[in-house]
Amino acid sequence: MRDGPLTRWEHSQQRSHTVVDVPRIPRLRTRQTLTALLVVAVGSAGLVWLNTGDDPPPVSTRDAFVDLLSGPARDEPVKIDTTLYLPERTPAPAVLVAHGFGGSKESVESDARELAQRGFVALAWSARGFGRSAGRISLNSPDYEVADAAGLVDWLAKQPEVVQDGPNDPKVGVTGGSYGGALSLLLAGTDKRVDALAPLITYNDLGQALLPNSAGSQAPGASPAANAFGADGVFKRSWAGIFFAAGMGAAGLANPTTDATEPGTRENANTGAVAGAAPAGVPGGGRPAETADPCGRFTEAVCRAYAQVATTGRADQQTVELLRSVSPVSVTDKITQPTMLVQGEQDTLFGLDQSDATARQISAAGAPVKVVWYTGGHDGGRPGPELRGQIADWFDFHLRGQGEDPGTGFEYAVRGALRAQGSPSVRTVTAAAYPGLTGGQATERRPVAVTGDEQTVVNPPGGNPASISGMPGLGAVISGSSQLAGRVAIDLPGQSARFVSAPMTGQLLIAGATTATLRVSTVGGAPAPDGVVLFAKLYDLGPDGVRTLPGSAVSAFRVTGLPADGSPAEITVSLPGIVRPIEADHRIELVVSTTDQSYATPAQPATYRVSVAPGTSLSVPVVPGTRSSSAPPAGPLIGIAVVLGLCALAAVWGFVRRRRADDVDPDLADVPMVIENLSKSYPGGLKAVDSLSFRVERGQVLGLLGPNGAGKTTTLRMLMGLIQPTEGHIRVFGHRIHSGAPVLSRIGSFVEGAGFLPHLSGRANLELYWAATGRPLERAHFTEALEIAGLGAAVDRKVRTYSQGMRQRLAIAQAMLGFPDLMVLDEPTNGLDPPQIHQMRDVLRRYASTGRTVVVSSHLLAEVEQTCDSVVVMHRGKLVASGAVEDIVAGGGEATFRVDDPETAAEALRGVTGVHGVTIEGDLVHANLDGTPRSTALTVLVRAGVAVEQAGPRRRLEDAFLQLVGEEAAP
Questions:
Q1: How confident is the model at residue 532 (pLDDT cuts 50, 70, 90)?
Q2: Whole-angstrom Cα distance, residue 449 to residue 446?
Q3: Where in the chain is the domain with CATH 2.60.120.260?
Q4: Per-residue pLDDT tens for 801-820?
Q5: Cα(128)–Cα(65) distance, rounded to whole angstroms?
Q6: Listed residue (190, 112, 178) closest to 150, CA to CA
Q7: Burial state string for 390-410 with b = 16 or more CB within 10 A and e = fewer than 16
Q8: In the CATH scheme, what architecture does the domain 445-626 have?
Q9: Which CATH architecture has domain 666-885?
Q10: pLDDT tens digit sequence for 139-188
Q11: If we measure between CA atoms, which residue out of 434, 400, 395 comes closest to residue 197?
Q12: 465 prior amide bond cis, ω within 30
């Protein structure tokens, strides 16, 4: 970045802009209009007929802090923050709804409300150490979190709205996802008052989930997703780090015993950031923040275990025992209640092998078990409304005896290739039972041969660079992209061995964990003390060479005790549990790698040989079943088709109407943006934007200012077509803005933060973004945009190495791609240091100097004053001021004069009628001119013999801003 003459690119961009006329659609005749209105009316009536139904039943809530006793002797008090959701009719059975790790009772508010609308009393609570509950995180310890849940069952037994089975025995079920799902299993295994349970996307053995070892000496079992669950696993470093970070929230914050207490930092269910802790005075509560406790809100035992694994990459016996004690595997042999296990097929944290083990163990205890695999998970999202309805049906039958028996079958979802509105098609396959359970048939397995010679692979020093299988914590974003899901995997040359099958002659539907028998040996001496750590993946290899890693899943395993003479050891590896249709002409590719970015790998360099054991094939699980169909009878189906046809006609008419509404004002064709009488209202009477009008000209850098809640972001979202105004409109280069308006392609934006893939370079991220727009490559102007952003050679480095300032500049470069005529930026200097802010200021000015326009929303008033030439000030949705920065600043009438004789100057100014507030500050004289022209004051000073070196407004933009929004400047 530099000040000075314009670059070659800037000179080339100082040119005229051509406006292309948009063809206008002919006006429709009156008969056409009436016909279209009739179609809309009939279609609407059909939709109303199809969707006839009552509004959801009302639900009332009751918040309370419940005092419980926990600990080994049940003598340690703790306060737990709860919300009770009450249905329209009580008494009713109750359902405990537990939240995931890093969440709170607010995280499961919608689930609890849905259950209450189905007629259950639902109890949501913040587990100890989360939200506003006291206590420290013990990872679902039987003495703490599980004891807390049992105490809540005691509390439900005292509530008149809950149906009772007997004294201190409420009719109760329990559900929850992830951390909450494990709690559901642990509670059911220790408290027989639980009558039914439905745990979701959870673990069986936390030790095996975070330190998996998928290798053994023989095949793991008869169920479809069984895993070897060997000892001495490989540390799943990335996911474990996310967990630990989620429990590191500030200690000693909120005190739930007083209404006036403010909760601490609010938690986010996606990132796991934790809310305020319990009061330090409560046993088991938080510690004062100034102690800077490295354990955060974890107990010392949990903290020690994490530190031990994180620093060594392996779990000692004490850690193994701790993780097993807080895992459902410790109690599954005691669970006899009806259990519905729901597990996600897109889950690199808790795979299908975890629910597989739980199903086998509970079935062996004699409990009825239903297993459902769905397309979501920690990397794919929560269950949809249909699956949530099945869970409610499960409780309906087992808690109230209502509805059909949901049985003990097995369902799994198959994501297809056909896409509807950007989403893949999904079908459900239903089998009579989950294969391999007690008394049932084993899983059908089909051999698939793979070929490939023995291959040499290298573990690099420090395990870096590493292959990539998935992106823990960001998988949900990636899985939502049709182009990226399963395709971000990277296997580095020299570190991975590949074995490929012949093309499929027909579709092969994999449903579970494929097993492979491998031979592994060392090269150049005995293996390191850590043993041989490897990672196995199963790819779908298309005929065009495109490789897809289903579920971004990988199996980690460790092989120890290899012969020092280089002789091979033969092991059976369980590959990740997946559901994937391998289509005809596709191949299966088995990849074995020495590294994976998400795991801790040995630091010592080593070389291994890997091969598929001679005479063996991949053993692929197949679970036949019937394809679920929810097709209605023929009569309603015909009715639906008619209504959909009418709606299609109505949609065409709506499109025509929208194209007519998308008029072009030729008088504004060269004006970047005009906002006229813009308003946006929300239900409940909230008016975020109120009759806003202003205009932006070419070459301007305009600052959009206002306090929180002023309506700035709402205005920008309407400008981008993300939401529609209630009244008024926005025109960009004469075109009226609406969702999907073609003129939006002339706007570059950085409004809600740019998401970059950290393992790719800055340039690759920009190329991927531009490819998603579908516009020609030659129109991107990568080189010129990067020249303005000033990233230099760093653009070819991986984004994960970038500083915050570099990420911001990359985001600006992304917004500049294609050289939009209007660029809209929201807080572009966030996280930048002063030199970086200065560089960003230069970037924006240089871009505007080419005749383009920049709109900047920022809270840094000093930067707006130095960067922008015009400002718009909003307050409570209204425009309170607009104009040039210098006019806004000078609007208060205060002026400053730098003079050679301050005393004489002050005396002369005091003699001018209307001038007041004259003060002296060194060689500066300040005065409130109160409407007196500054030229008049200068004339008075000159006549008094005072030499004036400088004259100008006294106020800063910040002072003007605070006055405009009705607030006083801070002292």
A1: very high
A2: 10
A3: 445-626
A4: 888 778 878 888 888 888 88
A5: 12
A6: 190
A7: bbbbbbbbbbeeeeeebebeb
A8: Sandwich (2.60)
A9: 3-Layer(aba) Sandwich (3.40)
A10: 999 999 999 999 999 999 999 999 999 999 999 999 999 999 999 999 99
A11: 395
A12: yes
